[in-house]
Amino acid sequence: MFAYIVKRLLLMLPTLLGVLLLTFVVLQFVPGGPVEQYMMEARSSAGGGLESGGISYRGNQGVDPKQVEQIKALYGFDKPAPERFIQMLGQFARFDLGRSFFQNKDVWTLVKEKLPVSISLGLWTFFISYLISVPLGVAKAVRAGSRFDMMTTLIVLVGYAIPGFVLGVALLVIFGGQLQWFPLRGLTSANWEELSWPARIVDYLWHITLPVTAMVLGSFAVTAMLTKNSFLEEIRKQYVLTARAKGLSERQVLWKHVFRNALIPLVTGFPAAFIGSFFTGALLIETLFSLDGLGLLSYESVIRRDYPVVLGTLYLFTLIGLFTKLISDLCYVWVDPRVKFD
């Protein structure tokens, strides 16, 4: 086991290096880099507007070449790309994610500021999904082929087929716009600091309902169907017939014998699903509901070509993903002692 863990840790290094190298190379060929973004903002602030009614746009006069060189030196683009890449690796080795070009903050600070929103969405989505999908999958397996099974399968597949952002738009239009039952944006009201703690909890739940609903309906479908199929596979095995022949009740057979074996695929995927709920799938939801989380930060960083934020968050998320994958593999041994990595 120890040798396997060491080997996996060593394999993380080339994987992480390959991800960073590929992303860094792609960014070098993306038009409109940070220098161009800065120049465009400078022109917009210097120019009055588009030519209309005899008023000409002054931004097209350009920027002083000396100023352009100063901007490149400020952002580090006066150095060759290989040197910048090696310098970036040295910073990442010290867990220094750099400093944002446009927000004048360390990337670590930005991540810490945005992380509570993503954690809030991720925790609710993860726990609600599992609390619904696992019991639903068990019920579907026990009643396989019944009307309940067919109806719930139809509902689950319809929910899975509808993209989260489409459902989010529908929820906003209906419950936020027409009926005005829920707020359209944010996680708290403007007067949240003035509310009592019970009122704060109610206000928070009131704001989180629509975005969590949009994320949950599509995420629990896979887990529910996986739970059903795992239980059906275990129910048909010989040890279940033996347990029933010994006179055990159906409840004892189901929850004492079948449940542990059937949950092996779910438990082994638990760490990845838990971590993934924080960092994946929330980009469109956060943008749609104006939630200032990691998804919105990543989107704005890509649009503005804020390379330190893009590469820093990519390094952090890739590292978390690699360790999560290792933990998921180790869960096989914890759940099923028959598994030997040797």
What's a concise summary of this model?
The chain has 342 residues and is mainly alpha-helical. It has helices at 2-28, 34-46, 65-75, 81-93, 107-142, 147-161, 164-178, 197-235, 238-245, 250-262, 264-268, 270-279, 283-288, 294-303, 307-335.
Q: Total helix count?
A: 15
Biggest sheet descriptor: none
Structural class: mainly alpha
- Per CATH, the class of the domain at 107-335 reads Mainly Alpha
CATH superfamily of the domain at 107-335: MetI-like
Average pLDDT rating: 79
Question: Approximately how much helix is present in the residues?
Answer: over 70%
Distance between the termini: 7 Å
What general outline do the C-alpha atoms trace? globular
Radius of gyration: 26 Å
In the predicted model, the low-confidence regions spanning at least 5 consecutive residues are 48-61
Strand content: under 5%
CATH architectural group of the domain at 107-335? Orthogonal Bundle
- Provide the succession of SSEs: HHHHHHHHHHHHHHH
| CATH fold category name of the domain at 107-335 | MetI-like fold
